[in-house]
Amino acid sequence: IFAGMDFMLRGNGRKIRHCEYFYLTKGRDLGFNAVMGFFSKLSSGTGEQILTRQMFRLGQILPLPEMLSFHYAHAGYYLTQAFIALAMPFTVATWLLVLAADCEDKFRSFTYCPEASSGEAMAKVLSAWCSWVIVFFLVAQALPLFMQMWMEMGLKSATLRILKQWASGSWCFFMFQAKLVGYYVLNEIRYGGARYVNTGRGLPTQRSPFLGALDPDSGLLTKVSGLYLDYARLSYYDGVKLALAACLVPLMGGYAGIVTWLFVGMAAFSWLYAPFLFNPYQFSSDYFLTDLKSWVAFFLRENATHWVQWYNETQLKPRRGFRHSVWDVKFLLGFFVLLVWSSAMSKKLELYWNIYDYHEDFVASLVGPQTIAFVPPILASVVICVLLTLLECAACCRGQLAVPGKPEQKGFYLPAIAVILILVEVSESVIPLLCLEQRSWRKAFLAGLVLKLLLFSLFLFLAEAVINRSYFQRWGMLGRPVELFVYANRWARDAAVSTLLLATLTIGVGLHSLNEMACPTWNLHQLLIYRARARNLKDHLAEDPLPEPNQRKSTVTAL
User: Which residues of 44-54 are buried (b: 16+ CB within 10 A; e: fewer)?
Assistant: First the structure.
């Protein structure tokens, strides 16, 4: 729409022919995926508008009141959603950094430490942020809607509707929507490539699978599409990171009030479970069993061919090579966080080796006292990948992973390689830092693990950027170790995140089964989605069957 208006306003006889077709049920209620797809194209379009010279010129010539109205009604809304989505991860990351730089509890006499610990200081700051003021802010956000409903329907109806929205999980929906809007706006500003997204008009009662449609006879996937594949990059990865970071906070001596933990938990929960919470029949045991079988077919069958294809098309293909990846804002921000964390860890190691003799520790004497936390856990993994490549050459195997549609290309079993590499990388991360844990330097030990994880993520990001380069295919077998390393670790990440989601969703399946046994005519999950009592579909059709096609046509004509 913005591009069409800009094209017409340039004049010189430019014309655009637009045809709009109206047909039955076009404006019906939409499901969760359709709503999110609609907001994804709106957000991408807004990110494209922000980069245009028209937006720049409007910002220069509009008076301040009109400019503020224009900003609030257009780009400002989407940018605010992006900042809201980034606020909680930045808060928890800062919280962890302050706790990691704090003095060790049992060794405060060896260095200068303030009277108040970092945990106490952060608790005071967070208690000031997450107080009644932010609750008042959340209430103020819903005030325009409440006033509109009050004028139209009355005070009682407006109050009941607001309470019903909160009770039915609207907060979860809108927190996930803020994450989606922020992702697409910032992604468009960083990479570009906005395009039309066909959201479709699927029935809101249709269930979306976890990974795809499964053939009941062969147990293989016939269609790869599902909730995990749609939102993995968008929210699931970040949701798991936020949850793990929140679990590290109390281990490093951090604490806060109940309101702070409530906001952190709500953000992590919505990013991980909002698509499943609003998916009809998500917790049905029969459908859930099919999801488990599809997980096996997607990650384990045919040497993880389906996963390789999905990863290549959705996570490797959108990038633009090494230069564009390295000069990305997100990469530079991560590099800054890495430098700050390295500085805090360096101070701790310097103090530690001033107290203890590093010759007593085998690993420290081997690699150096200051490098036990600064060596990324990749050395053993790279050696294993090189050895596997040599074994493939010796066995006359092909030099690529199993590619969908090309069964002649063979290689070692990717899931087995991933498990081996993960075990080796975890050992390589923990063993050099055990000396800190053995002497009760808990904060230094955890800070060292986080630093190694950051270094490992940086190396893996660069390896992905190398694979995206056009000249990588010309490397042949020389690039096979890099390919093995990237694919194995990314497979392990997706397998772990999806397993965590399925394992926690079993709680909902159990509660749903109890609901069906105790009260089969009232389904609490369907009540949450549709805000109405849901009956069995077969019973509903038996009482009021669908009309015949001729009858349906006459009914539409009468309407």
Answer: bbbbbbbeeee
Token pair of 436, please?
A: 């800190």
* Residues whose CB is less than 8 angstroms from the CB of residue 188 and which lie 6 or more positions away in sequence, other chains included: 43, 44, 46, 47, 48, 194
C-beta contacts of 347-350 below 8 A and 24+ residues apart: 347/101, 348/104, 348/441, 348/443, 348/444, 348/447, 349/373, 349/444
Q: What is the DSSP letter of 22?
A: -
pLDDT at 82 over 60: yes
Report the helix count and the strand count for the chain, using DSSP H and E: 25, 2
Residues 237-279 have pLDDT tens digits of 999 999 999 999 888 888 888 888 888 899 999 999 999 998 8
Nearest to 420 by CA among 384, 454, 387: 384
Q: How confident is the model at residue 556 (pLDDT cuts 50, 70, 90)?
A: very low
Counting every residue, how long is the chain? 559
Residues 6+ apart with CB under 8 A from 34: 199, 200, 201, 202, 204
Q: What is the pLDDT of residue 239?
A: 93
- Closest to 320 in 3D by CA, of 165, 442, 467: 467
Rounded-to-integer distance, Cα 51 and Cα 56, Å: 8
Token digits of residue 192: 């570009």
Question: Tell me, what's the pLDDT at 328?
Answer: 64
Closest C-alpha among 434, 37, 408, 438 to residue 200: 37
Per-position DSSP letters for 338-390, written without gaps between them: HHHHHHHHHHHHHHHHHHS-GGGSHHHHHH-TTSTTTS-TTHHHHHHHHHHHH
Question: What is the predicted pLDDT for the residue at 493?
Answer: 94
Residue pair 382/420 in contact (Cβ under 8 Å)? The answer is no
Instruction: Give the rounded percent of residues in the chain with a pLDDT score beyond 70.
Output: 81
